[in-house]
Write a structure and sequence with these properties.
33% helix, 8-stranded parallel barrel, TIM Barrel, 14 strands, alpha/beta
């Protein structure tokens, strides 16, 4: 009697960075370092104001917040005690995951990263290359701001080691295609390990333009299986978001990047921007990641928040 030959099961194909996602993480970048209340009255400054915005963003659907610290007058700050106060305010009221900025101009990476071993946020920004960083007015035909954003390899290596020592997930911020390629040496050294989390920033003058061609090119350079999110500057955030979701990206919105809703009206809170992003995601029949799903994707586990203040 003939027997059926067993057919070997096909191995599941590995996830590509350009596959649409079942669960989309929404991050809110609450305040940034450059914008002020003359430009947008809703920019939060104090730890309490930043925490208020984090809670509102969480209630609207965000599961991760990107944090810059400010002095009470709105000036950018890297004082670790202010980062600690922001984290304490948020964690006492809301379980959202924390991502600290380490970027800046005019001071050392050691100064900008002093808060990391003290507060131990879930994630921290790892800027992956140097660049011109400018704001240009086409109407006025002049630069409104121009500087050089320095992130040499020795500083990237130092910061990455600090993050590894403190079990902080690096968020690799890439303002141009070459910044993605800059991750290769650190992957080869074993300092960068999967899962990889990239932020693709499009639209900064001095970096790559916010266009479909640019986004497709950057996604094509990502390591296989990498997670990534689009950061579009100003209204380009909304015009690029559908393609980003189609290509497998997560979403970042917030007053750091863009003050305006898709209809062109200025947002009254970060929560309004989160709500607009959630609506776009759901319209595409994708689902917004829960806090537990975000924690598993970002941290690789389902443990609770770090009990820093107990």
């Amino acid at each position: 009697m003939a027997t059926k030959k067993s057919v070997p099961k096909k191995k599941p194909k590995p996830k590509r960075s350009s596959d649409p996602l079942d669960r989309v993480i929404v991050t809110a970048a609450l305040t940034g370092a450059l914008a002020d209340r003359k430009q947008c009255p809703e920019i939060p400054y104090t730890p309490k104001e930043i925490a208020d915005e984090a809670v509102r963003a969480y209630e609207a659907g965000a599961t991760l917040v990107h944090i810059h610290a400010r002095e009470n007058d709105g000036k950018p700050s890297w004082r670790p005690e202010i980062f600690a106060e922001i984290a304490k305010e948020i964690r006492s009221r809301c379980p959202i995951l924390l991502n600290f900025s380490t970027g800046g101009v005019g001071n050392s990476i050691q100064e900008r990263a002093r808060s990391l071993p003290l507060v131990k946020p879930d994630m921290a920004a790892l800027n992956m290359g140097s660049m011109n960083y400018s704001i240009y007015s086409s109407r006025q035909k002049k630069f409104l701001m121009r500087t050089v954003f320095l992130n040499p390899f020795e500083e990237i290596e130092w910061l990455l080691k600090l993050m590894n020592e403190n079990h902080i997930t690096p968020e690799m911020e890439c303002f141009d295609a070459g910044h993605i390629c800059n991750t290769a040496p650190f992957i080869d050294m074993g300092l960068l390990k999967p899962p990889f989390h990239f932020s693709l920033i499009l639209g900064v003058v001095g970096g790559i333009s916010a266009s479909p061609h640019s986004l497709r090119a950057m996604v094509g350079l990502l390591p296989k299986g990498a997670d990534w999110q689009l950061i579009g500057i100003s209204q380009e955030q909304w015009s690029m978001m559908p393609l980003s979701l189609e290509l497998g990206g997560h979403v970042r919105v917030g007053l750091e990047d863009n003050f305006y809703l898709p209809n062109g009206k200025m947002a009254h809170s970060n929560a309004e921007l989160v709500e607009a992003a959630v609506k776009i995601i759901k319209k595409r029949h994708q689902k917004v990641a829960t806090l537990e799903e975000t924690r598993k994707m970002v941290l690789g586990n389902s443990t609770g928040l770090k009990d820093i203040y107990q």
